[in-house]
């Protein structure tokens, strides 16, 4: 049974509802269930203490229970203040065999609508295990858990927290305050935690970007597997997942008719491609903005107008950022938009839309409409509707990607955890992607559920192509 203090969720009485949805999701997550069948008996994650920082949704609940079925102990926080599904969090804490009065599942620290100090408190709770231990594995999405360990160890090495700067974001100030408290207790907690970590498996483009930066600067403290760049992750979750959940978020937030409207998608990478396709599917006239000539050309070839934001800001109805960049939509842009233009971000962090700049303006007031929907009224009479305070709208305003696509992503996560935990010596500090045969395995696990009949190479054909009948079928540089 879990101790009362060893989790924090909104409401354990939601567990029964969460459990029903978990059971429905399991059927839609054939990859994870196949991994449970394959590895359940040998329990390769026995001895693993996994700290997870990833949107606490129903799909993530199936991932968590897959990791425990493979022998891991797990502690979990969400990687976004709005993305937790409270019934999922409750069901994971209660566990399949517990009750709300006697929870017997996994310690989760997550609820929908955390403040920033609460968010970082939750992240700290999942990194500090009972008995003064730390995790030996991290499963991260966006890199916040990894960042906290690295910042903490850096501060302990320096013996001081960097002085506050008036230009620091509110969030950075929260992190510094947390580290200052740790330093005052003088237990070198983050240095010890960092030393105990065998590795991290990272879910998303933005987190992977942070890892490669640390690798280049020589500051990375433990090996990492880049799950995002498995083909069965980024070319599926980022693209087809967003194709599904962008529209879901827009509809639940505003229910504004999309057909006939002009919708702008900033960024035509994997996420942007899915977003543009789904908006077009609803009958919107879609305009793409890009900085990369290759992606701009792709968008044009796919039939989208490619323009700068300045060109369309005054005439478009819906604006979506999907770049992983910052200040893509500025407060000046919003000042120049049509009345009741909808502005949302589907990239990982909230700085794609300059929310801080918007809040600082004197000619605008924020009028909350409902949770995660705000009308920002300008003095000239027009207003814009900003979704999820600029945080990823598909998880803030809706329930994120559906189970089937997440089964692909999370099968990669599970395999990456097994790889790093059981074959640690094969991965010196650095950033790695999974080998292609494992990527192909993840895809294979999902074919049957869709009735896909795969053609098998003959021996003659295989030798003609110079590949094995059982794969891998493409060289590593192939781009899909
Ligand atoms: P990507 O790198 O494939 O695509 C981003 C694109 O934005 C690139 O083509 C880049 O050239 C373009 N770009 C960068 N700065 C720009 C600017 N100032 N204006 C216009 N275009 C610009 O990355 P991906 O995989 O599409 O991910 C994008 C973001 O979405 C990341 O932050 C990622 O972590 C996040 N993500 C969110 C998901 C969700 O469910 N909400 C799911 C998967 C990824």
UniProtKB/TrEMBL annotation:
Organism: Actinoplanes nipponensis
Binding site for NAD(+): 204-206, 238, 267-274, 290, 346-348, 394, 401
Intracellular or extracellular location(s): Cytoplasm
GO molecular function list: adenosylhomocysteinase activity
Keyword Hydrolase: yes
Enzyme class: hydrolase
Function description: May play a key role in the regulation of the intracellular concentration of adenosylhomocysteine.
Pfam families: AdoHcyase, AdoHcyase_NAD
Pathway assigned in UniProt: Amino-acid biosynthesis; L-homocysteine biosynthesis; L-homocysteine from S-adenosyl-L-homocysteine: step 1/1
Binding positions (substrate): 57, 141, 203, 233, 237
Family label: Belongs to the adenosylhomocysteinase family.
Cellular compartments per GO CC: cytosol
Record flagged with keyword Lipid biosynthesis: no
Annotated EC: 3.13.2.1
UniProt entry keywords in alphabetical sequence: Cytoplasm, Hydrolase, NAD, One-carbon metabolism
Main location class: cytoplasm
Any single biological process term in GO: S-adenosylmethionine cycle
Catalytic activity: S-adenosyl-L-homocysteine + H2O = L-homocysteine + adenosine
Matching NCBIfam families: ahcY, PRK05476.2-3
Cofactor remark from the record: Binds 1 NAD(+) per subunit.
Needed cofactors: NAD(+)
InterPro entries per UniProt: Adenosylhomocyst_ase-like_sf (IPR042172), Adenosylhomocysteinase-like (IPR000043), Ado_hCys_hydrolase_NAD-bd (IPR015878), NAD(P)-bd_dom_sf (IPR036291), S-Ado-L-homoCys_hydrolase_CS (IPR020082)
Gene from which the chain derives: ahcY_1
Residues of the S-adenosyl-L-homocysteine hydrolase NAD binding domain: 238-400
Name of the molecule in the record: Adenosylhomocysteinase
